[in-house]
Amino acid sequence: MNMLYNSENFAVMQFDVPAQGSQPDDLALTRGGYEIVDKFARKEIFIEGALAESFKLGVQALIESSPSQEALDEYIGRYSSLMQQPLVLH
After folding, report:
1. How far from the centroid of its chain's Cα atoms is residue 88's Cα?
2. For 12-51, how does the pLDDT look when each residue is reduced to its tens digit (9 = 90+)?
3. pTM (two decimals)
4. Given this model, what pLDDT does residue 90 score?
5. Domain boundaries of the chain, sorted by first residue
6. 3-state DSSP call for residue 14?
7. Among 54, 89, 75, residue whose Cα is nearest residue 5
């Protein structure tokens, strides 16, 4: 798990998970995604596959323009409507 972004509104973590049956040193067989946490709504979502790739490409394009924190939060906020999982601390 890598913390990629943390603001007052959102946190984004990247997960790389070895595929079932792969060896720990086999980097070619991995999958993963991003966990996005909306701190105010107290909800989160884990995205993977095509949606995660779209999120990654959008963030990369945004970073090329040296965005403000507000611009990053606005982009990440687009995923808030998908969040159904309540945030539970344990």
Report:
1. 17
2. 999 987 666 656 555 554 678 999 999 999 999 999 999 9
3. 0.80
4. 47
5. 2-14+32-86
6. strand
7. 75
